[in-house]
Please model this.
Amino acid sequence: MSTPTVTVIVPGRDVGAFAEEALASLRAQTRTDFRAILVDDASRDTTAEIFAEVAAQDPRFTLVRHEVARGLGASRNEALDLVDTPYVGFFDADDIMTPGALEALVGSLEESGSDVAVGAYVRLRADAAGHYAPGIVQPWVAASTSPARRRTTLAEHPDVSGNIVAWSKISRIDLWRREGLRFTEDKAYEDQVVAQRLYAAAAAVDVIPDVVVHWRERADGTSITQRRHAVPVLQDYLEGMRDGLAVLDAAGHPAAARSRVRLILDMDVPALVRVAEHHPDDVYRQLLGAFTRELSDRAVRENVTLDEASASLLAEARTW
Model:
């Protein structure tokens, strides 16, 4: 077997219903010189057995098991310490990686010499019969990855700041270690801050329009993004967006920060307002109202142009 070039970190907790398909998509990559670190975070279902079986079958896979759940951020951080390849990426064990994902992302970095490569992704949703099918590339994803660019920067391409998920990227491990990058632990939306720190620290970034991951929205509603009705999850969500903006501000990237403010107010906040309108807890509305006023006031100060379609929802949230 060839010497591994990239390590793919795959954490999972209670994803037994999807893990076989996820790992099969990783094993089916057209680029085979990878190592995978599987982290079972104290699963109570068949996840550990599925991970162990694949690790026994394929020497490229290494299994790490937790007896007590530590969370997604901690699982990724633990695996980061084990990486001994030039490049690193992340993959969630309930998603599907497209066959040419590693070839496109790693190959781009090898050719360009950039620090980070970012790809597009689509949602994987279930129909009424429970069959999952991929959707289209959403506008904010396309804005971050299309058209293809080599050796761009956050200043030159500020819309890349909207691509905040961990599993759409491959990056140089030296960048992580040089900058001391780690995922936030014990919180949801732990990739918001890391993404902005990666972009800000990178000497150059590649973006490609290829879809690299089908991101599963689970039919049972247990995905993190489907639990935003819970007040603690909302708090983590808002904190992640605030802290990500703070990274861009501190690094001196005003265009990227404006792009991020626009995207949050046009996409994230309206979806949360629709949840808040029928939420039984006033605390939910109060948290969202304060956040909306904060960002809306910033948008006015910085002349950020917002979508008129979101205006009524933003106005409603400002009253809470």
